[in-house]
Amino acid sequence: PPPRRVLLLGEGNFSFAAALCGAQGTHVVATCYESEEEAAGRGGAARSIRRLRDSGAEVVFSVDCTKLKEYFLPGKREFDRIYFNFPHCGRKAGVVKNRELLARFFHSCAEVLAEEGEVHVALCNGQGGTPADQPRREWHNSWQIVAVAAGAGFILSDVHPFKAETIHGYKCTGYRSQDKSFCVEGALNHIFTRSTAPVCFTPVSCKTQLGSQKVSFQVPQVLVDKIDRGFLEVNSSHPVRTIKEKLSAGLSQAFPLQSINSGLPLLHQGHPDGVCHSSVFWITPSPEEAPSTEETSQRLANAALFSHFGQDTDKNVQGGCPVPKLFYLRPSLLPHAQAIIKKGAFPPGTLHVLSGPVFRKCRITPHSMPVFHEMLVVLAVGRGTESSCIQMLVENIKTTVSSLHQGVSGVKPSISLQEATGFGTELNDFAAFECQLGEIQHFLCMGTEPDPSGSCVGVIRTAPDELKSSELVVVSASLNLDLLAMLLCGISDWRMLWTPDRRFLGQFPEGELRLFKSFSLYPPSFQHDVSFWVPDGEEFDEVAFHTLARRVSGETVLSIQLRDSFQQPGTGRRSLCYRVTFQSCDRALGCREAAEMQLRFREEIQQHLGVTLR
């Protein structure tokens, strides 16, 4: 392979560069801000410069770190690593000027860094403003290095102590080699990498068959980057597929098993029984002649095929063609299991396993997902034996999950089956929605450190009347594979499961489950408040409010909190104030981009929710 190109900036006496120049497979380009005459006059600098040149390294003088591409020809601009040790504007420059220096430096790095290159910045203890600094300065009194780097498209991927004593011959100098050197005790080396680009939400249209008619529908914008990811396919190494396969293998040891992974339509028709209408993604199909902005792959089109509808289809006319209306993206696989049961293709004793993504509107929290992968297992058993079958089913699942968790972290998790009546733990969004789909007998909860109390990852149901048989009862278990993946692999934010960044799947080679290590450390967060008057006589739809925030921000809103509710005396008008926190878990998000999103969000809620901004 070609030698790794390393660029060193702001060298004082060139002792750091001299220590690196002998590394095998490395070509060093050492630079400083001063002229050669100024630099060579420092103690030890001339000797280090000679050593660098003798070893084949390049030494360049009068280099401004904020205009790097001006000093290198186009073919020589791609550096694998860029080092900048203890940058400083000089003299008594305050934190604001040094932030500005870093901001211009990172923008300059973006023009000369290789695609998978790294930028190393060493700072004195406390300057960076991250939790790695001990003690940590107040945010406003730090250089805010992660936030300024984000503005240029970089994320902090690692941070570790800067051990000057381990660098042979290195001697730290002060600003422009003043006698007073920088204090390197407790100094930290911050390693930045390129972030993936913001998701481009180009409208996506999906073609499908409704009865005898070909139609298309536009995918809701919040799902454009999630509708066709193929996480459960055979060639996938995603953790949700690994967990699904491990659970299926365990269940097959206790029951005859039949998997149904394809042919499950994405669209449901009519009104979902018992489900709040604001919790589903409604779809309006159009005749195929309608122009589509972009077609999805054939895989998605096949997955959305509908073989037939009921006789009471409600129709409207668009473009001279009648098409069914009142469709929505499937929020659960349960109706598909019920359809299989009604067709009679459901032999008793055989465990049927259905799996696929389901779609639900929900509020924004780290564990609330508008799309996740459901694994639904369904079994017909003899009446009176359902309790023992549930116990066998749950014990099998618990054994598999415990084995997986111990293999990943070496710790046995807390897994419990809790009665639905008198359930003591607050329901998470997954469990709360499941309650709308039908009566639940048990919740399956899993707890790990630091929350051993447990989060609901599955629900157990029995349906005595489903088979219209006096002898058989249907037992089903619905599992949230995404929540299981988060708990097993130590993933704190559901959004990371859907990141396009290849570094995520790179941590799970060939589907091996491991503890996840974030490649974006201490991402900056930005808070904005929005207050408005609610339309008179209307109930404010918080789920729609959160869904708009998801759409505008591209899932970079971390949380939305109600800060104040005010009712105006006399008129009775109601005002609400929410705090919106923007933070990305996997890509660079700068303050300017967050502010622009907030402005768009204000416009969207005014247009779509009918509120009056204050």
TrEMBL record:
SMART domains associated with the record: FDX-ACB
Compartments reported by the entry: Mitochondrion matrix
In the record, biological process GO terms are:
rRNA base methylation; translation
Q: Which GO terms describe its molecular function?
A: ATP binding; phenylalanine-tRNA ligase activity; rRNA (uridine-N3-)-methyltransferase activity
GO cellular component: a single term? mitochondrial matrix
Reactions catalysed, semicolon-separated, are: tRNA(Phe) + L-phenylalanine + ATP = L-phenylalanyl-tRNA(Phe) + AMP + diphosphate + H(+)
Q: Does the keyword Membrane apply?
A: no
Every FDX-ACB domain range: 521-614
| Keywords, in A-Z order | Aminoacyl-tRNA synthetase, ATP-binding, Ligase, Mitochondrion, Nucleotide-binding, Protein biosynthesis, Transit peptide
- EC number(s): the record gives 6.1.1.20
Instruction: State the InterPro entries in the record.
Output: aa-tRNA-synth_II/BPL/LPL, BMT5-like, Fdx_antiC-bd, Fdx_antiC-bd_sf, SAM-dependent_MTases_sf
Family the entry assigns: Belongs to the class-II aminoacyl-tRNA synthetase family.
**What is this protein's name?**
phenylalanine--tRNA ligase
